[in-house]
Amino acid sequence: MGLFERYLTVWVGLGILAGVGLGLLAPGAFQAIAGLEVAHVNLVVAVFIWVMIYPMMIQIDWSAVKDVGQKPRGLLLTLVVNWLIKPFTMAALGVLFFQYLFAPWVDARSASEYIAGMILLGVAPCTAMVFVWSQLVKGDANYTLVQVSVNDLIMVVAFAPIAAFLLGVTNVTVPWETLVLSTVLYVVLPLAAGMATRHMLQRRSGQSVADFVAWLKPWSIVGLIATVVLLFGFQAGTIVAQPLVIGLIAVPLIVQSYGIFAISLVAARWLRLPHNVAGPACLIGTSNFFELAVAVAISLFGLNSGAALATVVGVLVEVPVMLSLVALVNRTRHWFEG
User: Fold this and answer.
1) 2 near 217, Cβ under 8 Å?
2) Cα separations in angstroms, 281 against 14, 28, 44, 82, 307
3) pTM, whole model, 2 decimals?
4) Segment holding 154, helix H or strand E
5) Tens digit of pLDDT for each residue in 105-154?
6) Which of 132, 128, 270 is nearest to 262 (CA)?
7) 143 and 186 in contact (C-beta within 8 Å)?
8) What is the per-residue pLDDT across 91-115, written as a single tens digit (0 to 9) for each?
9) Could you give the angle at the alpha carbon of 36 between the alpha carbons of 35 and 40, nearest 5°?
């Protein structure tokens, strides 16, 4: 991991502090930025989201999808966890914590928005950081690529209906047009741009893709931190007034991460997967495509919403949690050897 990825939690933490401070010092500036939107999509944040997503999409090699049949069990585990288990356990935990356990400390409207943000995280499986986690557990890089590629193909068609269904279950009104538009804007179009760029670079040389992505990677983190600064700037007043809200949101997100990982790890051993497939499969099922979740939360519920705040808390929680899970995967290597 490079400097940016290794200390991502530190950068996010600094971005949170900067956002809160700037939001308190210059609330008018953040209100002006919030007004720059078209069809409920903030133009400034949209630019930052694209800066985040574009380098990640270039790394997807769609030609690898043809190799899926070689090791179907690992792919099956990832898809079942991502699309049949994870979204629904996230929704259930959100309801459990915010409508029951945390009900004395959270008003009903905020609770619904926090649940919505959690659901958007649960329906957005990770796209790019998976490659980092796979490398740290000595995973099969080619197979990881197949898993991510197939997952992205399914996300294009499954994200909107699953999110809408779960958000409807939790009594949040969902504008279908905005949700579909967000999926197209933050998944389909970046994928198309990434594929076109990758094709162009591969015509030059085999190393061009890696070199270009390495050059763009710091900008991806810059886009993430800039988005965090904006979101926490918009939420500055709420955070100061309710300092415990970040911790309350983090609790069910952490429970979800470790719970899904445990399910995946036990299933991987039951399926007798080799460790270099089992490790990445468990981590793919646990991590989130938080960039997409943040973008859709902003589009659906607004920059100042509890849903947007919940997805940003997901960014803060994910990296340290995933690094701890990487350590667990490496310590359980003997479960799969032989």
Assistant:
1) yes
2) 31, 46, 35, 10, 28
3) 0.72
4) helix 141-169
5) 998 989 999 999 999 999 988 766 777 677 778 777 677 777 877 887 78
6) 270
7) no
8) 999 999 999 999 999 989 899 999 9
9) 85
